[in-house]
Amino acid sequence: MKKVSILLLVLGAVAATSAASAFSMAAPAASPAMDSADSAQKAAAAGPTADGEIKKVDKDAGKITIKHGPLANLDMPGMTMVFRVKDAAMLDQVKVGDKVRFNVEKVNGALTVTAIEAGK
């Protein structure tokens, strides 16, 4: 009986060590928040990624209306939309009718222009 108890104790220790080793070797899973932050940083580093035309500038509301082509990073087709802007100073850089290149990201649940420059 004593030998059986020792054998069970040794087998339990080996099983626990194997499980702990497998757990520590597993690759950490990426969270959606990390993926979103990574994609936002990559998009910002790449520069403006969509083409559009300014249809309205609302400085009081901090919003801009842009008729745009496809927004690949958001899997969105071209259309005319109202966006918030990351920085109100962006609204001073454009006027109705301007052709622009810009980035849009989802910030706190709202589609937000994070970069904008004159189109070419």
Layout of strands and helices, then pairs:
Layout lengths: L1 H24 L6 H15 L3 E9 L4 E6 L10 E7 L13 E9 L2 E9 L2
Parallel strand pairs: 3-5
Antiparallel strand pairs: 1-2, 1-4, 2-3, 4-5
Describe the structure.
With 120 residues, this protein is an alpha+beta fold. It contains 2 helices and 5 strands. It has a 5-stranded mixed barrel. The protein is elongated, with a radius of gyration of 26 Å. 16% of the residues are buried. Residues 19-24 have low confidence and may be disordered.
CATH superfamily of the domain at 48-118: Copper binding periplasmic protein CusF
Round the mean pLDDT to the nearest integer and report it: 78
> How many E-type strands?
5
User: How much of the polypeptide forms β-strand, as a percent range?
Assistant: 25-35%
Low-confidence stretches: 19-24
Report on the biggest sheet: 5 strands, mixed, barrel
> How far is the N terminus from the C terminus?
86 Å
Sum up the overall morphology in one term: elongated
State the helix count. 2
Describe the structure concisely for a colleague.
By secondary structure, the protein is an alpha+beta fold. It is 32% helix and 33% strand. A hairpin with a 4-residue loop joins strand 1 (50-58) and strand 2 (63-68).
Keywords for this structure?
120 residues; alpha+beta; OB fold (Dihydrolipoamide Acetyltransferase, E2P); 5-stranded mixed barrel; 5 strands; 33% strand; elongated
